[in-house]
From TrEMBL:
InterPro entries named in the record: Smim15
Keyword annotations: Coiled coil, Membrane, Transmembrane, Transmembrane helix
Family named by the database record: Belongs to the SMIM15 family.
Protein topology in the membrane: Single-pass membrane protein
Record protein name field: Small integral membrane protein 15
PANTHER family attached to this UniProt entry: SMALL INTEGRAL MEMBRANE PROTEIN 15
Membrane-spanning ranges: 29-49
Localisation per UniProt entry: Membrane
Chain segments carrying region Disordered: 58-82
Assigned GO CC terms: membrane
UniProt source species: Pocillopora damicornis
Length: 82
């Protein structure tokens, strides 16, 4: 029982034809979906690994810098004490 008071537009016609295609060819539709999504997921995984390595590298640099600053401060305190 569709609502006939809604005006049909170009998007509605396109959506209707797409839904009919999916209903008539579900295996072909799923094949195309997986065909399109597989490379995108692979790219996403690669970029995630690259980002994780970059974040780890930055954390190590920050830790080294903090250790260096602490050691410099200790050396200055020792020099003042002498």
């Amino acid at each position: 029982m569709a609502d006939n008071s809604v005006q049909k537009g170009p998007w509605k016609d396109t959506l209707d034809s797409f839904v009919k295609y999916v209903a008539l060819n579900p295996k072909e539709f799923l094949f195309y979906v997986f065909l399109i999504l597989t490379p995108l997921m692979a790219i996403s995984g690669y970029l995630s690994l690259k980002l994780a390595k970059h974040i780890e590298k930055n954390e190590k640099e920050k830790k080294k810098k903090a250790t260096r600053q602490t050691n410099i401060a200790k050396a200055r305190r020792r020099a003042k004490a002498d």
